[in-house]
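Table 4 source record.
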Amino acid sequence: MNPSNVLEIKGLSVEFSTERGRLPALRNVDLAVPAGAIVGVVGESGCGKSTMIHSIVRLLSPNGRVVSGSIHFEGSDLLGMTEPEMRSIRGDRISMVSQDPMISLNPVLSIGTQMVDIQYREKLDKSRKRARAVTMLQRVGIPDAAERLDDYPHQFSGGMRQRIAIAMALQAEPSLLIADEPTTALDATLEVQIIHRLQELQQSMGCSILFISHHLGVIAELCDLVVVMYGGEVVENGTVRDIFHRPMHPYTQKLIECDPARMVEITRVQPTIPGEVPDLARLPAGCIFSGRCHLAFGKCHDQPPALAGQDGGHRARCHLTDPGPGT
């Protein structure tokens, strides 16, 4: 493992047992999160983002299993850890924010009770734990934090609930924060506020963030590095400038073209990517995107491309990045 990386995934493949047989949800996924960096993972629904997250924290459903690959966190092999060892890391060294805070927050317990309870590892009395909770709520911008500790989740707006979820995740000062589409349920104004708050907290606390989203604008605003996933594979990765100014993979190019923020003319028709996401139970022989790609040629349909790179670490899984693609 590269010592400069907090998280490093290599060759990760995950499959699920279904009534239709084996379903390879992830195939040979590589990903690295450098210390102090924000890495964005973007892709359509069903591309494998959530499966990758659950693999990292070892919370796959009972019918899922890691077939091959490795996941190293701060030099330790997560896949080789016992369950007690993993429990000591979850919520402490690795924290997570979900896209819907009403799922992660208990509706029948006050915010203060929940924020005190998650400090069960700390050898502090209750009053000091409540004081820490107040401080963290203030840092994420909750007004009158001390007075609102005894309020329940339904007494807060959606944006406030998401800030509380972020405060709870960062309260343990983790090395890695996994944010699973934390702004999806928010309107545009609140989304911007949450993004700016995350940036401020990340800079002040120095933690790394793995940010999952399908919103390209958020990725461009927040992240340092970007990983593009499609059909259970990493199809492109690079810096934000690489991905948004010189995308190499046709899927990345189409995603950017479909971003409403790039539209310059008023229209009733939103741009889309023709075709459908491939059936993972019946994977194509060649490139996973070949059935929807306007640039596909002969070997795209029968030879899977490798993740080829350029200087600076910008890589794409596409035959067009190979020298002499027409040969």
